[in-house]
């Protein structure tokens, strides 16, 4: 059980990151609205989508887990900050679903990074 938990967490975060790409890359009206509100439409929407794709893929590659988790933390930290400062918790009557998803995914990414901290080359942890 313990041996499968880290992989399950990585898979969950990767799926969440990758499944949101269809909204960003197809210019879904909700995605366009969000990025317009924060002044990043369309370049930011597409760029963040590419970064989320990279993070999702890295989370599935054993040697890239710590990089993917770190990248996901940065992306999701930015999303949470935008929710708290410019967007609000609820967007287009979603009852806070996007915000909650960002917080949960951020938390899971932090747990993953903690679990794989020994793989970070410049920390030299045993």
UniProtKB/TrEMBL annotation:
Coiled coil: none
Gene Ontology CC terms: membrane
Superkingdom, natural source: Bacteria
Transmembrane segments annotated in the record for this chain: 7-23, 43-61, 66-84, 96-116
Pfam families according to UniProt: DoxX (PF07681)
Keyword Transmembrane helix on entry: yes
Keywords: Membrane, Transmembrane, Transmembrane helix
Localisation: Membrane
Lipid bilayer topology: Multi-pass membrane protein
Keyword Cell membrane carried by entry: no
Name used for this protein in its record: DoxX family protein
Organism this protein belongs to: Seonamhaeicola maritimus
């Amino acid at each position: 059980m313990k041996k499968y938990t880290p992989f399950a967490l990585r898979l969950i975060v990767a799926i969440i990151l990758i499944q949101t790409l269809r909204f960003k890359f197809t210019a879904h009206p909700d995605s366009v609205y969000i990025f317009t509100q924060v002044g990043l439409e369309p370049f930011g929407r597409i760029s963040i989508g590419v970064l989320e794709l990279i993070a999702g893929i890295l989370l599935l590659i054993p040697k890239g887990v710590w990089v993917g988790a770190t990248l996901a933390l940065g992306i999701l930290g930015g999303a949470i900050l935008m929710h708290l400062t410019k967007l609000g918790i609820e967007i287009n009557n979603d009852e806070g679903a996007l915000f909650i998803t960002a917080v949960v995914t951020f938390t899971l990414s932090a747990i993953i990074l903690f679990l794989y901290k020994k793989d970070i080359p410049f920390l030299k942890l045993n």
